[in-house]
Amino acid sequence: MNFKSTFQYFYAALIMFHTSVEGNSPTLDEGSSGVYSGFPGIPGTPGHNGLPGRDGLPGRDGMQGQKGSDGTKGAKGDKGATGKTGPKGSSGERGPLGIGKIGTKGEKGLKGNMGEPGPQGENGTVHSINWKQCAWRREDAKDTGLIQECAFKKRHSSTALKVAYAANMRVHCSKGYCCGRWYITFNGAECSRPMAIDGVVYVNINSNIHRPRQIEGFCENIPSGLITVAVHVGNCHTYRTSDLATGWNSVSRIMIEEYPQSQK
After folding, report:
1. Under CATH, what is the fold of the domain 139-260?
2. Which of 32, 50, 80, 253 could potentially form a cystine with 135 if both were Cys, beta carbons 3.0 to 4.6 Å apart?
């Protein structure tokens, strides 16, 4: 017997004892045949909660509401809440290229500022502004003196003249050493700016060889107008007169060109 049942038993005994002391005897029920009513019993222990019942069956749909008195439908209900945005779909295929109208030409923009100077380029080729050639076929056996002249009309006083002389030259020695010099003059004088235009042939044996040679150069500080350009022949400095020959069995020529003067 647990504590709760024991307590209930003693509590009932105490009530019966108290009743007997006070002289309250049990009463005889009317109409009974000698049977006495008992004392009320002690309340019993509450029972446990029963298990949850099953869900009821779904109710039927309600009847459609009646239309308004004027026969129209009822008022429209409130707008429901906006649903969530769905995921972005994949890109579709690119459509064909359309043909649009040609737009109008825009206005001309303002002129921009001048840029900084670029680096200096390489020296280019300078072309002559005036040229002439004098050519002849003649053998000249002079050891000293004038070989040939060529007249040239110089256009500008600020330009330079380039002269090239080509011919077959020979220096002959019977013994010892010998040297011949061919040089260019302008109006009878050799070039002084920058230097003379000349060439020498030197031999130290008994030879008689004719070879084609060329001498050339630029001469500045020559005035404009008609200029006589000439080829001369003579001795080399400190050498005695030698047996010279010019233009043997070949064509000789003087070529003259006028160029813009170089910048210093």
Report:
1. Jelly Rolls (2.60.120)
2. 253
